[in-house]
Design brief:
Blueprint lengths: L11 H16 L1 H22 L5 H25 L2 H10 L2 H11 L3 H29 L14 H18 L7 H21 L2 H18 L4 H18 L1 H12 L8 H23 L1 H6 L6 H10 L3 H5 L17 H27 L3 H4 L2 H16 L10 H21 L6
Helix pairs in contact: 1-2, 1-6, 2-5, 3-4, 3-5, 3-16, 5-19, 6-7, 6-8, 7-8, 7-9, 7-18, 7-19, 9-18, 10-11, 12-16, 16-19, 18-19
Amino acid sequence: MFFQKTDFPIHKYIYGLLLTLVISTAVSKTGMNLLSPILTIYSLSFYFSHKKSLPPVISTLFITCFSIYALGTIGSYFGHTDINDVIEFARKNTFLLILPLLAAFLSNKQNRNIACYSFLAACTFSALYGIYIFSITNNFDINIRVNGFLEYSRHTNVMLCGIAIGLSYLTVQTLNQKAKAAIVTSILLCLLSMVISGTRAGYLCLAIMIPVVLCVQYRRYIPHVAVSFTVLFLLLSVILPQQVQHVTSRITSIGDTEKHISNMARITMWKGGVAYIESQSENSFSKFLFGSGMENSEASYHNYLDTLTKVEKKAYQGVDGRFYGGSDFHNSPLDLTIKSGVIYSIIFIIGLIIISFFSLKKDYQSDPSTRAIFYYLVAFYPLVMFYTMFQDYSMIATSVALALILGRYIELSQSPKQVQ
């Protein structure tokens, strides 16, 4: 069998569907749409059919994820009493129901390795597609932002994860030189794809993640990397001066909060979002606790703005006269709190942090798959401060990453003395 059978009675065809989902997170929104409901139904049926025979660690994981999903679904109705909010929440958060099934599938090393290599291959394919569009269709016009098969934040998210996986697996001793050369090629293609995407948050996250990777895994190569980067930058500045200048200007604009319109718009909508939450805590406590709904938050936010005086309203108005925010606040914790309430947000974020802390432990750092996710999470947390991702398709890719950690946790809990 291509996969290594786990200790859990998962049907062999489901292994293939789970791996297809892993691949789809990097290349196909349609694939995620098709597979999510199928795997959600199977996950539910799997648990209720085998709950008496499942180990406590697996049973607890299923119950925890199902409970968080149920809390959010029910809470979305109490916040606004609109069935559309319930449906939208239920649809966009199915990753919570698939997560324990993914973790069970990834509870042995061979399956984790297969998933990671497959995901990296999918990221490489997506990067190649973006590079093709940039070079052939756009004639190397760096002013046109180019992604792979997904949109900006989703593409950036999977590229960061792919780069993290490649960097982690590059030092696996059992790999031959051809395999390592293929991984290096994949890393470079993903890096190039991120550069031509023009996503400034991606640049920032790379600038945070790469030094961490170097310090943890490649400390002796830091001088070599620094020299190579400097030489490459100078060389490209001569060969492609306009493209380099464009990229560097986007990088330097990240900290410009006084003149850069995009930065100012984000800050304005963040201020408006915080003010809206404060208003709900005083005037509509049910919305504060359970959220304004994924469908109704925009209308509720603009209704709130209409209650303000002209002077107060101006503080949340962009330089172009528009009011930003409502449907998307470009900040995951803020957006989650507004749409799903403070109770669900606290539980969800605490759960993310707890799983993330496992990746810091020695038993997780020794496994290339979970070490890779540690690198990825170093970039993921800054990224979510600039994009709405906690209730988006991006979270399916992130749930794969979290499932790698949880899979290792299950493996260690089942046989802590035997697992290396």
